[in-house]
Each structure stands twice: as structure tokens, then as C-alpha cells.
Amino acid sequence: MEKMALPFALIPFLLLTIPILEIVVFILIGGQIGLWPTLGFILLTAVLGSILLRWQGLNTMRSLQNDLAANRLPAKALGEGAMLIVAGILLLTPGFVTDSLGFLLFIPQIRAGIFSFLSQRVHVMGANAASSSNFSFQMGDHPNQSRPETQRNKGSRIVDLDESESESQDPDERAPWHDKQSDK
């Protein structure tokens, strides 16, 4: 549990550090090129980020649709889509540091590296729901540890009862499992 708590402990630190870093970079760059060029550059990166987000987002959407049409789990397309959303948020946040990080996420090789890093830590098991198999996401410290995959039989009928229903002394004749021949 301590390993999972560490990234969450970094959030308050980042929420304090990133704005301070942005202010320092604003002062340094603004002192070199002036106020209006600095503001113009920030607006330009927001516009360029929006254009890149739309272009790469459409490509990711096509990839997602192709995976679904081929009956494949679209893990990579979903991961890239999530990274593109983060890139868009970073680019719309005014600042040079966040813009730099956002533009880095638009480079496919960097997204592939992040996806590879994360895919070693997140395991997806299962298949398409249309094939009647369940899928679950497994996250843990042991990437080689796996759980057995559960599947339903196509013709099986599952009845979920709680304890009071399974021990009933007065059977309900409307119930589908009630055997009418046992009454005779």
C-alpha cells in the first residue's frame, strides 16, 4: 500500500511546485522577449495544441473504431486517448512548463514509451463481452502474477439468491426453480 500512496502524496507537492515554476519561467522569458511576445507565445501554443489535439484525436478515434470492429480490446487506443486529453489540458493551461509537457505528449514515440511503461504495471485480462467472457483490470506490484480468467457457459442460467431465499420453508410457486411435480 505504501507504493500506491506515494504518487498521491506527490499531488500537493506538484500543485505547489508547478505554479511557482511557471511564474519563474514567465519572469525569465518575459524579461528576455517582453510582455506582449510572451503572452502571444502562450496564446499561440494554445491554438497549436488545439489543432494537434483535434488531428491526433481523430487518428486515435479511428484506431479505436478499427480495434472494436476487429473485435480487439482497444487498450492502446484508449491509453493514447487518455494521454492526448492530458496533453490538451496541459496546453490549455497557461505556462511554458505545462506547454512543454503537453507538446511532449503529442510525440507518438513518447506516448508509446509511456504506454509501454504503464502496460507492464496494468494487466488486462479477458476478451470482448460479445464472446460471453468477462474481463477485468488487474493492477498490482507483481506484473507476472495473474488471476484465472472467469467465463460463463453460453447456455447457463445464473440465479443469484441471498441467504433468506435459499432457506425458505414456504416455497414460492411462481419461482422458476419451483418443481410443481414435487407437490403432487
Provide a brief overview of the structure.
With 184 residues, the protein is mostly helical.
The major β-sheet equals: 2 strands, antiparallel
N-to-C CA distance? 59 Å
Radius of gyration, CA atoms, in whole angstroms? 26 Å
- pLDDT averaged residue by residue: 75
Tell me the quaternary state.
Answer: single chain
Number of E-state strands: 2
- Strand order of the biggest β-sheet: 1-2
Helix content: 55-70%
> In percent terms, what proportion of residues is strand?
under 5%
Identify the overall geometry.
elongated
Helical stretch tally: 6
Return the structural class. mainly alpha
Identify low-pLDDT runs.
Answer: 128-153
> SSE order in H/E notation?
HHHHHEEH
Describe this structure as you would to a colleague.
This protein has 184 residues and is mainly alpha-helical. The chain has a domain at 1-124. Helices cover 60% and strands 4% of the residues. The protein is built from six helices and two strands, in the order H-H-H-H-H-E-E-H. The protein has helices at residues 2-33, 35-69, 75-92, 96-105, 108-119, 163-166; strands spanning 122-125, 136-139. The chain has a two-stranded antiparallel sheet. Helix 3 (75-92) runs antiparallel to helix 4 (96-105). The longest helix is centred in the N-terminal third of the chain and has 35 residues, at 35-69.
Secondary structure blueprint with pairings:
Blueprint: H1 2-33, H2 35-69, H3 75-92, H4 96-105, H5 108-119, E1 122-125, E2 136-139, H6 163-166
Helix pairs in contact: 1-2, 2-3, 2-4, 3-4
